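User: Hi! I'm working on a homework problem where we have to compare a predicted structure to a textbook description. Could you give me the structure for the chain below?
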Amino acid sequence: AIPVVGIGGIVSASDAIEFLLAGASAIQIGVGNFIDPALSLKIVEGINSYLDANKFSALKDIIGLI
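Assistant: Happy to help. Predicted structure tokens:
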């Protein structure tokens, strides 16, 4: 399988989750880090909250789900 990296416009956990659900196995956060230096940590926390709320045990469980 060819790894897909989601890039572009990721400024929230929901943006990152959309890329992951669509099949990205990784994401890249660019300009958002200049706006908020803590953005990457907030996105990781948001993804973890999403996984917990939806009873997924690992990030890999949502990759390509839709």
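For your comparison, note the following. Strands lie at 5-7, 26-28. DSSP finds three helices and two strands in the chain. Good luck with the assignment!
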